[in-house]
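User: Hi! Is it possible to get a structure for several chains at once, not just one? Here's what I have:
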Amino acid sequence: MSRNDWICPLYVTQRSEQLMGAFTEHLSITLVAVLAGVVFALPVAVLARRSAWLSTGVVSVGTIVYTIPSVALFSLIYAFSGLSPTTVTIGLALYSLAILLSNTLDGLAAVPADAVDAARGMGYGPWRLLVAVELPLALPTILAGVRIATVSTVALVTVGTVVGFGGFGDLIATGFRANFKAEVLTASVATVLLALVLDGVLLAVQRIATPWSRRRSA
Amino acid sequence: MRGAIDYVSDSTNWQGADGLAARLGEHVQITVITVVIACVVALPIGLWLGHVGRGGALATNVSYIGRAAPTYAILVLLALAPAPFGSNQTSTVTALVLFAVPPILTNAYVGIRGVDPDAVDAAKGVGMTSWQVLRRVELPLAAPLVLAGMRVATTQVIATATIAALVAGGGLGRIITAGFARQDDAQLIAGSLFVATLALLAEGAFALGQRRSARAARPI
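Assistant: Yes, the chains can be modeled jointly so their relative placement is included. Here is the combined structure:
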């Protein structure tokens, strides 16, 4: 009888604790990294857009960081923060920051001048203009960036196994070393599912947060 | 950092099958092979779909899937798969090609679709065949975006080839994994700097080519 090494329901039930641990680690690293990216990207983009020179510079630095391969970036950060989830989180936060900076700048630059003029005419100050007009109008582009950052972060957390904190990536690594195919496949599928679920959640957020864009397309 | 510089300065670390020179050579070689294969596969499809204006959903979804797919997982799955896959070069190249195809295909499609329809109409008006329109009008005008796709693919391959060292591949990633295994920080930092520099050089070279082709494609 040929045995299927790849799919093993018993693995999922008997090692559910291990899977839950990997899931928690994977999810928390992802959320913290993307959130940190958002928290840093927004103010930097708002400040940098004042000058063309500054915004080009900020995006260029982002591109350089984004170009550094993940294994190399994690290893370089490891030299400072050692074998810890922080190492992986900082690396992925930097990638997210790079994606979000360019999307936020694009979104803010695409705000129609008419809307800005109208708000100014109504007596909006710079702060109120930003919060009540510009950021909401840039929101679809910013949220598109958040989705890209989240999906690619989920995929890249697995590489964190190089410093021992890769969420499902750690299960893939141990499964590979032990030639335990069911563990590798389960963890791989779980990684993809996590990316799809988070992307779906963000898509729903995008629809709810920007009802005007849905009405326009409908 | 000082340690890494000492490591690179020591000529013995450059020699041998697992030295810097050999690993750098492997990394460049696999990157070139993979990107060439990916171009051969993806460029005709992307350019043709863009030319006939079909398959837009396919072209964009392919790049979405490419982004969501965990490269490390795919590398391990292929390494455990039966022959011709397994812990060998075939698996590594296959995985790298899989990840290089989406950006090349999508950008070729988007580039051709973005060509000014007036230019295409004018070309048809002077009697160019469909093939001539693609070759002489659409392709030169789309070149900056086509190159952008190849640039993303190349940096992606350099990065994924590094991850391949955790599984079955050679290349500069092996300098890093050996550094971790021997707890030799100088070695792993040196390896990381090499990988980062290689990726940035490739990025810079393509950025330059892109700028040139954009200048050539600009209306006079």
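The interface with chain A takes residues 64, 67-74, 76-77, 79-80, 155, 158-160, 162-163, 165-167, 173, 176-177, 179-180, 185, 188-189, 191-193, 195-196, 199-200, 203 of chain B (CB under 8 Å). The two ends of chain B are 50 Å apart (CA to CA).

User: Great, thank you!
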